[in-house]
Amino acid sequence: MKTVFSPLHSRRHVKTELDGGLLIEPHEKPSRAETILARVKDQALGEILEPEEFGLEPIRRVHTDSYVAFLENCWQEWLADGKQGEAIPVFWAGRGMRHREPRDIDGRLGYYSMGADTSISDGTWEAARASVNVALTGQKLVAGGERAAFALCRPPGHHAHADLFGGYCFFNNAAIAAQAFRDQGYERVAVLDVDFHHGNGTQSIFYGRNDVLTISLHGDPDLVFPHFLGFEDETGEGDGEGYNLNIIYPPGTPFSVWREGLETACERIAGFAPEALVVALGVDTFEEDPISFFKLTSPDYLALGRRLEQLGLPTLFTMEGGYDVDAIGVNAVNVMQGFEG
Ligand code: SP5
Ligand code: ZN
């Protein structure tokens, strides 16, 4: 399987994440991508390609123009305002307040975000753009006839809504790739999100549509991020009714239980008969993950890859979360190796 990777991921190198009242070293750090790349090389998974440049148009198919402009200018505006640290949102429009874009940078940070876990600094824009190009280059490989491709995206994307960043995500790489398939004539596309966290951005982007089936398996949002979306009664709306599926699990969930939801998801995907599959691949379901509560083990990722292969679909993997850096390479590449059999 071919892997797409951009060294520009390292342009995102924030020093802070607000967690537990402290500014800690971010969980989403450059060594994550480097460790996965090293495992891809070590296992000789296949050719490693740098992405092509696709420009902003495919991004604008999913994200709003004003959000894209905000991300491009955010850091410069923050500096121009004389701030000392990294850009972190701290104010939001709570219940009863106005959802209106303010001019001030603190107001705009809140308007375009869902959390304070995601700082912005120099290079975030460049890395987020490169991550989209990685996903779209993988999409092009699959559209060109590859059975599957591994888009080693960083930063991740599945939490990003049309006009919201957060959860370490800026552009929704999986959604942009799914939309690219649609724009190239694929009639139906499925996005299966196996990251520990709900794929709230992807769900939101396609919630009213029946041409993109979205399924997410994740930790109960009653207990974990993203807290305010990802419940099982969210099944889609309007034309999209019946085209979103959320499967949630409690703390301590092992693969033996998790795989039952995977089976349900795979059966739903098969019934939808998509022409392509995008897998939002997080490996923060791992038993040692520092911010998550499932109990998957490294061999379980081989079984996941095998099951996905059985769907028989052209498949694009986009890298999402996974924060036990020691195991992230083995676990992510295990999915690819399981897929390849
Ligand atoms: C792509 C992805 O996996 N994003 C996840 C974003 C989660 N951000 C909030 C993390 C809060 C971590 N709190 C740590 C508590 C440890 N017990
Ligand atoms: Zn995650």
From TrEMBL:
Cofactor(s) the protein requires to work: Zn(2+)
Any single GO BP term: epigenetic regulation of gene expression
One GO MF term attached to the UniProt entry: metal ion binding
Annotated Histone deacetylase domain residues: 28-336
UniProt keyword terms in alphabetical order: Hydrolase, Metal-binding, Zinc
Gene3D superfamilies reported in the protein's UniProt record: Histone deacetylase domain (3.40.800.20)
InterPro entries, A to Z: HDACs, His_deacetylse_dom, His_deacetylse_dom_sf, Ureohydrolase_dom_sf
This protein's record includes keyword Hydrolase: yes
Protein family (similarity comment): Belongs to the histone deacetylase family.
Protein name: Acetoin utilization deacetylase AcuC-like enzyme
